[in-house]
């Protein structure tokens, strides 16, 4: 039996830039937020198209600070939850359906680089893709550090029909940008459009849990009296009141979901994490304090997975002349990187 050639059968890892450095243009405010889109950066430095709909693996972060710098550095990301995964896929499927139905009579005009691109949150929407941090090149003896020049990177838009008008007025379409977390329609962003939230839209499209599960009849606990209503359960009585007490516990304890939800007796609106009412911001990935005694002016933050490759850098009370961030990516089989489609998240 011939030996199998594992070298030929294994998937080749393509060459790709695994370390990217970014200049952070600090302004000295008490709170500042900056955003990185890994798919945009990888497309630029590799001259190869990477869709935003990837769940990227990051090896780690490194921050280089000037002498005496102080403040807090925090990395945030899209929630690493089934809610975010399902919300993204449902939004993506509806966006594709909208495009497919509109292109039925003109399929030849479908753009080659059509891609579902979203903003991380309302802050990202307000600053726009034009403010995304871009990778730097190294300096030489004759040339300074250079920031990459971006190509086209345009947000996706839902055109939502407004059917609330009467028959005498034509139906209009409302263009809406897309954010991952937070409430809908907060304010117009850098693109001039209001945004809809993937998680909030997903929450509004789903059914609610039962207020009680099981939603048992009141007579279920009636097994001890001479006129027991739940007489089938009473047949098993052995003059021990334990059964009745246990059934009472079953009816009154652990019968409501351990998370808040609309119409649960307290809350009147959806309570999905990452939506309009519950934990409405990005997930905290990690953070560190920069102090005047930080060794070597270097601060490290752990790696992890980043849905859609969107990274938020939040600074609090940062006081320093400059700040540079380095992101280490992991080699893999997705065109050189360890990343998987968001549909597999």
How many helix segments?
Answer: 7
Oligomer: single chain
Shape: globular
Mean pLDDT equals 87
Radius of gyration in whole Å, from Cα? 27 Å
Number of strands: 14
Estimate the helix proportion, in percent.
Answer: 10-25%
Outline the biggest β-sheet.
5 strands, antiparallel
Would you write up a description of this structure?
By secondary structure, the chain is α+β, with helices and mostly antiparallel strands. The protein has helices spanning 6-9, 38-46, 82-102, 122-127, 198-204, 231-234, 242-252; strands spanning 19-23, 31-37, 54-65, 70-77, 158-162, 172-179, 195-197, 283-290, 298-307, 310-319, 323-329, 331-332, 336-337, 339-341. Helix 3 packs across helix 5 (198-204). The chain is globular, with a radius of gyration of 27 Å. It starts with 5 loop residues before the first helix and ends with a strand.
What features would you highlight for this structure?
345 residues; 5-stranded antiparallel β-sheet
